[in-house]
Design a protein that fits this description.
alpha+beta, single chain, two-stranded antiparallel ribbon, five-stranded mixed beta sheet, 4 helices, YceD_bac, Large ribosomal RNA subunit accumulation protein YceD, binds zinc ion, YceD
């Protein structure tokens, strides 16, 4: 069942009272904002359960994706396993969210249409690291710790050594 395609959107108004669950994947084409952030995901896997009853529907589930981004340290691609979980109240309009306290996470489903792709994409984006990097701190060969390798160390003549060699020349001449 896990290879099934998730619906990109669900018409909650057509669902009977009770719980409705989906498990499957959505292709990366459904995740344009991850792409805009410089990431690439072939697909996102997830499960979503809608609870329909007398009050606002509930929408809970989880999702996983492997997102490839450019490592900030070595600038080569790094694959990041990202997970997310959500437990949301579905409202028709954001104004309806006022009925709940500010900490209650809500998702707006205009005219009862829940955008599943957006819900999953939001969670994956929240799970992305602020600065994508390989786990190996030396993925760039440790270049940053030692500075540019081809920069010569400035050599300054020691004035006392210069003085010493002059003295020796003097003693040589007086002989
Ligand atoms: Zn790296």
């Amino acid at each position: 069942m896990h290879d099934d395609e998730l619906p990109r959107s669900i018409d909650i108004g057509r669902l009977a009272a009770g719980e409705h669950a989906w498990t499957g994947t959505l292709s990366g084409d459904s995740l344009p904002r991850i792409h805009e952030l410089g990431g690439h995901a072939r697909e996102v896997a997830g499960s979503i359960t809608l609870t329909v009853g007398p009050s606002h529907p509930g929408c809970r589930g989880d999702c996983q994706a492997v997102v490839t981004m450019d490592c900030e340290r070595c600038h080569s691609p790094v694959s990041l396993a990202v997970e997310g979980a959500f437990d949301l109240i579905v409202v028709d309009r954001i104004a309806e969210a006022d009925a709940y306290d500010a900490d209650t996470p809500v998702v707006v489903a205009p005219r009862g249409w829940l955008d599943v792709a957006t819900v999953l994409e939001d969670e994956i984006i929240l799970g992305l690291p602020l600065i994508p990097m390989h786990e190996d701190v030396n993925c760039d060969g440790g270049q940053r710790q030692f500075g540019p390798a081809d920069e010569p160390t400035p050599v300054r003549e020691n004035p006392f050594q210069v003085l010493e060699s002059l003295k020796r020349d003097d003693s040589g001449e007086t002989h």
